[in-house]
From TrEMBL:
Organism in which the protein naturally occurs: Williamsia herbipolensis
CDD domains assigned to the protein according to its UniProt record, in alphabetical order: crotonase-like
InterPro entries (alphabetical): ClpP/crotonase-like_dom_sf, Enoyl-CoA_hydra/iso
An example molecular function term from Gene Ontology annotations: lyase activity
Segments forming a coiled coil: none
Pfam hit, one: ECH_1
Lineage of origin: Bacteria, Bacillati, Actinomycetota, Actinomycetes, Mycobacteriales
Assigned protein family: Belongs to the enoyl-CoA hydratase/isomerase family.
Keywords annotated in UniProt: Lipid metabolism, Lyase
A GO BP entry: fatty acid beta-oxidation
Source taxon at top rank: Bacteria
Official protein name in the record: Enoyl-CoA hydratase family protein
Length: 251
C-alpha cells in the first residue's frame, strides 16, 4: 500500500509513504496522507507519530506528470488543495509528529517537514524547493521555519538545496544519522515523548501552535494564489512541460 499506518510499539505510530520511484505523490495521495496523520493523532492510544518514507528519498513533491496528463485545472487544484491538507494535518495532528527524512526532500516534502515538531535526517538528506523552476510558488512558509530569512530567500530564488548538516547547524534538524540508523534515531525521541502524560503533551502541542507567530495555513494558501496566477498566464505550463519532456528546468 502506498500509505500505511502501523503501531511500532505502544504509543508510537508510524505513517509510511511508499510511492515508487521517487515518492512524488498524485493529488489523491496528499489527501490520503493528511487523513492518515489526523486519524493517527485522533486515536487516544497514540502518543507520538513518526512520518517516514520507503525508497530513494522522503518526498519529491507533487506528481507533475499526472498534472500535465490531465485536461483542465482539476489536477492542479487537487494537488494544491491536497498539499494544503497534508501540511495542515502535520501541524494540526493532536500529538507531536516526528519526521524521519531519508535522501531527498523537495517541494511538498519541505511543506511536511516545515510543519513537523521534530526533524531527524539521514546524513545524505537534502532539502529544497525547485518551485521557481517549475513555474510555481509555495512552501516558502515552511522553508522559513527551517532556515533564517535571508537564506530562505536565497534558496528559494535559486532553487538550491540545503543539506541535513546545515539544518542541524541551524537547529531545525535535531539529529543527523546514517541512513540505516534513521528509524532508530526517530524512535529514541519518540520514546521520550511517548513516556510523558499524553494529556499534557496534547495540550502542549495545541498551546505551542497557538503562540506560533505565523499562521502557516493562511500563509501557504496566499503563496498558492500566485501559483494559480502563473498557471492562468500560461507560464507554469511552459515550465512543467519542459520538465516532463526533458527532466530539466526551462531556461
Amino acid at each position: 500500500m502506498p500509505i500505511t499506518t502501523s503501531t511500532i510499539e505502544p504509543g508510537v505510530v508510524a505513517v509510511t509513504v511508499d510511492f515508487p520511484p521517487v515518492n512524488a505523490l498524485p493529488s489523491a495521495a496528499w489527501f490520503d496522507l493528511g487523513d492518515a496523520i489526523i486519524a493517527a493523532g485522533a486515536d487516544p492510544t497514540t502518543h507520538v507519530v513518526i512520518l517516514r518514507a520507503e525508497g530513494r528519498g522522503f518526498n519529491a513533491g507533487v506528481d507533475i506528470k499526472e498534472m500535465q496528463a490531465t485536461e483542465g485545472f482539476d489536477a492542479l487544484i487537487g494537488a494544491n488543495r491536497g498539499c494544503a491538507h497534508a501540511f495542515g494535518a502535520v501541524y494540526d495532528c493532536a500529538v507531536p509528529v516526528i519526521v524521519a527524512v531519508n535522501g531527498f526532500c523537495v517541494g511538498g516534502g519541505v511543506g511536511l517537514v516545515g510543519n513537523a515538531d521534530v526533524v531527524i535526517a539521514s546524513d545524505d538528506a537534502v532539502f529544497g524547493l525547485p518551485e521557481v523552476d517549475r513555474g510555481a510558488l509555495g512552501a516558502a512558509t515552511h522553508l522559513a521555519r527551517l532556515v533564517p530569512q535571508h537564506l530562505m530567500r536565497t534558496l528559494y530564488f535559486t532553487a538550491q538545496n540545503v543539506t541535513a548538516q546545515q539544518l542541524e547547524h541551524f537547529g531545525s534538524v535535531y539529529r543527523v544519522v546514517p541512513r540505516e540508523g534513521l528509524l532508530d534515531a526517530a524512535l529514541e525521541v519518540a520514546r521520550l515523548i511517548a513516556a510523558k502524560d499524553t494529556r499534557v503533551i496534547r495540550a502542549a502541542k495545541e498551546a505551542i501552535n497557538g503562540i506560533d507567530p505565523v499562521d502557516v495555513k493562511t500563509s501557504y494558501r496566499l503563496e498558492q494564489g500566485y501559483t494559480f496566477e502563473l498557471n492562468l498566464a500560461g507560464v507554469a505550463d511552459e515550465h512543467r512541460d519542459a520538465f516532463v519532456t526533458t527532466g530539466k528546468a526551462r531556461a
